[in-house]
Design goal:
With 151 residues, the chain is an alpha+beta fold. It has one helix and eight strands; from the N terminus they run αββββββββ. β5 and β6 form a beta hairpin. The N and C termini lie far apart (85 Å).
């Protein structure tokens, strides 16, 4: 009878120790998750100031992109075709896993309402037209599939 009681006591103690370790690991895992969330938030909020003038190479369409920042909001102006093209709009930045995207809001006269560009090494790259599965054209006067604006 005493042996049965001792065995039960040892079993209860072992279960308590096991549960305390498993709860402790859960707390560590959740605090690690919180640390990762904070790091992701920091990454998303640490965006560069991209204001300035970006130009396409001379042997391409020759468009110019002027980005201005006022009161933490960006706007843009695309000029080209010897003064014929003059487009204004707003833009925003996003950081997705360390890759910075520039989201342009286009005027209503364009088939696409928003266009996303990729920012790398002071260059904004925009896909100008799609393919057979995803047909779109942003700037019909430019035959370049990828428009690269360099700062």
């Amino acid at each position: 009878m005493k042996m049965k009681k001792i065995t039960q006591t040892i079993l209860v103690i072992m279960l308590m120790v096991f549960f305390s370790f498993s709860c402790n690991n859960t707390e560590n895992n959740s605090s690690q998750g919180k640390d990762n969330e904070v790091k992701n938030e920091e990454t998303e909020t640490s965006l560069p100031d991209i204001s300035g003038t970006y130009k396409m190479p001379v042997n391409t369409c020759g468009f110019e992109l002027i980005i201005t920042k006022e009161n933490e909001e960006y706007s843009y102006n695309v000029k080209g075709n010897n003064g014929i093209l003059d487009i204004y709009g707003k833009l925003s930045l996003s950081n997705q896993n360390g890759t910075i995207y520039v989201d342009f809001t286009l005027p209503e006269s364009f088939s696409e309402k928003t266009v996303q560009g990729l920012l790398e090494n002071n260059t904004i790259t925009i896909q100008n037209y799609g393919n057979a599965d995803n047909q779109f054209t942003i700037f019909e006067d430019c035959g370049d599939k990828y428009m690269e604006f360099k700062k």
